[in-house]
Amino acid sequence: MFPPSSLFLSAGLALLTGVASAAVPLDGLAANSPFMPAQSVNAAPVVAENAALEFRGFVSTREGLLFGIYDRTRNTGAWVRQGERGGEFNVVAYDAANEWVTVEYQGQKLTLSLPSARVGQAAPSAVPAPASNGAIPTVSSANPDEQRRLESVAAEVRRRRALRQSAVNNAPAPARPGGATP
User: Smallest Cα–Cα separation from 67: which of 85, 52, 46, 51?
Assistant: First the structure.
């Protein structure tokens, strides 16, 4: 019969070899986390909202597509090809139908989409359109002193235009308002 210590030793060795052979490979553990839901082959990727990176656009060149990726945390951007590193990110895949780009960034895969165009309505212009007859538009909300000042400026502009026109035609110059001469 075997002594009890050798029995425990042989049982321990058998247990260790069994555990070692049934060990889970840790190579893909970060990419395939057991705590995250499994992605099926046909499932659409989840587009990262408010991510540190932003997909700004793409350009087709003779050498292939260039993707514009902007890093919001560093306020920098780069144009990179698929499989090419740009700073801390690497463009892994591009889905032309959905305009998504998959990027590896700090050990994570992010799916970024092109932002949709934002169309808004502009506020109406507060500047009045110029009159077709060359007259200067009046401001109705101005106080009476401001209204008189604007009228005198308009009269002076009309007088100077007439002087310029008379110099071209060699006609006598019109008198200044109030009877003064230039």
Answer: 85
Distance CA(78)–CA(55), nearest Å, equals: 10
**CA dist 149 → 131, 163, 174 (Å):** 19, 21, 21
- Residues 6 or more apart whose Cβ sits within 8 Å of residue 38: none
- Torsion over CA: 12, 17, 23, 27 (sign): positive
Residues of the chain with pLDDT under 70: 1-50, 125-142, 171-182
Query: By CB neighbour count within 10 A (0-12 exposed, 13-18 middle, 19+ buried), where does 118 fall?
Result: exposed
pLDDT in tens, 60-97: 889 888 998 888 888 888 888 888 887 788 899 988 88
